[in-house]
Amino acid sequence: MIANILYMRCVYCQKEITTKSSEHVIQNAIGGILESEDICCPECNLAVEKFVDKDFVKIFSPITNNIDYLPKRASTESCYDGQVMCAGQFYDAKFKGRKIISVPKLQQERKCRLDKIKGVVPKQFNFNLQNDVFENGLSKIAFNFAIHSGINPEFLMDFVNVEKDGFNVTSIKFKNRVIPFCPLNIVDSKIEFRNEIQLYHNLILFSNGKELWCYVDLFNVFQYYVLLSEKFESSEKVLRIYAQKCQKIPLSEKHYVEDLHYVKPKHISALLTIFGVTYEECKAQRKEGEDDFSLIRRVINEKIRKESVVSSLSDLVNIGGMVEFVDLLKNSSDTGKINLYHNFSFYFDENDNLIENNFRQYFIDGDGQIKFYPHEMIDVMQSDSKMIREYTSLKFKLMCNYILKNSLLK
Ligand SMILES: [Zn+2]
Question: How does DSSP classify residue 52?
């Protein structure tokens, strides 16, 4: 209860929170569904949207415009850049929603409108990460997750710049150190280079001595470490994990939800208990003329549908893990085999479940030493940044392929 009283102040303006305001830990516009009422007041919620989120979510337009069943209903179509191919040539192009709206050079060459040109095929999309907007938005996610996980905001404020005019917030900027991730051992490589991208968001908040870090993975493509504090103090090691899929199950595929149609009225109270819904909750959502049975069925359905995206990280990461491991062993050198075995048993237990204490935090190097991932990535940034660029562009390519395969883009 004492903790609660401490956190009832808005982290940005310091005003006491009198009206609850729900802030999405990962921006709702990119499919985040985890919400927290412990972060800020309604006014600052709007300020964060204006100063941080609005531009950040635009970066993901190629994804959010083209992927179905994002937990948030598709908002207005937005514009983004990419490349198309026509008659064997690549051209820069502008897209809006799911349409190519202009290919300036091609239109100039042919001297005609785009809709008169046949055989224009989308090939690639641009994600502009070379700016403050990206790091700002990413740091905010890490910051939100830390507060949502009960970390005292005092540890986090060193890297947050809030400008105020009285209580009125006029600017919010995150100054956290943001480090890209790339796989530094063969097991991580195998997890990341599966043939098809797994669309999920994942957050891992962890402490290491006086440092507090958050690993932020958006869409299984944008993977970064955010340094949240260098003066962190805690009696025990912090570890909080959040994982969710980016797509809800399509209505047509939720067979088990349809099954509720065959439930008899006498089972209603058991159903309420199973799905953790109270009768009062249902009553509050009653539509005019709706009987109890339909009402409860609808409320439970909605709950299942929303929760269908919340997943265990273990399930998301460890798809087909064992089979691929055996294949890898066959094709590795002797030293490779040892390192592979080390890291595999470091990340997965005997039942193939992810060992969450290690994943993305530590790995075992070629000499059998345990290494702290963020620190090793700082070294890689300084000594071999080409490796990071190659990894990033490969991930982008996987994402583009996913979009091209799954969207109705034309
Ligand atoms: Zn506030």
Answer: I
